[in-house]
Amino acid sequence: MKSGREPFSHFLGPVRNLQTFQEIDGTMSVKGKRMPVSDASLGGDSLSFSSTVEMKGQEVIMRYHGRINGDSIQGRVDIQEGPFAGNYDWTAARSKKVKNLRPKRSFRKLG
Question: For residue 43, what are the domain limits?
Fold first, then answer.
């Protein structure tokens, strides 16, 4: 049976994360638009992060949880509201193109 709604997977693109020790910063691509990730957490082999995206005119909070295994991650995404509300499996693989990313440096004036 075919649903009348567009598959959730059509919305998602690359997720770019930059890890410095246990700190995570990154973006994800939704329909070609980069969105920042928030509430990122890394502990052992567990990774979690959230993002607020617009889907079909509605702001939707997506919470990702996963386990890192080598160069891949497997987990679940919880979508809080909107046309795709529910829980979905997700996987990610390390891009072979990304090498030696450097963290953003922030400077503050002293005194």
Answer: 8-93
What is the count of structural domains for the chain? 1
Report whether 11 contacts 30 (CB < 8 A).
Answer: yes
104 assigned to some structural domain: no
Q: What is the per-residue pLDDT across 9-18, written as a single tens digit (0 to 9) for each?
A: 444 455 555 4
100 within a domain of the structure (yes/no): no
Strand order in the sheet with 58-69: 38-43, 46-55, 58-69, 72-79, 86-93
Question: Which one, of 90, 89, 26, 35, lies nearest residue 59 by Cα?
Answer: 35
pLDDT in tens, 60-87: 888 999 998 988 889 999 988 888 889 9
